[in-house]
Amino acid sequence: MSTTKKVAKTTQTKTTTKKAPRAKKVDATQKAEVVKQIVESKRVIKYNYPADCKDTVQRKAFRQAARTKIKRLENKIFKAQSKTSRAKFEKELKKYQADVLN
User: Fold this and answer.
1) Do 96 and 69 form a contact (C-beta atoms < 8 A)?
2) Does 31 map to a domain?
3) Taking the model in full, what pTM does it have?
């Protein structure tokens, strides 16, 4: 009886090194354009808040009330049977949106 030995195979592993990140060269005109783009992308205020809305909680409550009233008026327009009532609700909706929204 002959015995056979199992021999572990040796494998070579490839080692890689990370390259140093390259710094981008940006001239002054490109920097000005980037700053301009950042400033222009600020959030636009969509609502005309009343004078008594001082803090964010009151503003949030005002926005929610405005959205619900607009949705309520839109639903009335869709459910209106006659053209006169539909026109009345559309006129009321446009007036309210002009008052509340920018």
Assistant:
1) yes
2) no
3) 0.54
* DSSP state string for 61-99: HHHHHHHHHHHHHHHHHHH--SHHHHHHHHHHHHHHHHH
- Tally of domains in the chain: 1
**What tens digit of pLDDT does each residue of 14-49 get?**
777 777 777 677 666 666 666 655 555 555 668 899
Note the Cα 93 to chain centre separation in Å. Answer: 26
**Alpha carbon of 25 to those of 5, 15, 35, 74, 76: distances in Å?**
61, 31, 16, 53, 59
Is residue 73 in some structural domain?
A: yes
Cβ neighbours for 52, distance < 8 A, ≥ 6 positions apart:
58
Residue type, 93: L
Beta bridge partners of 3: none
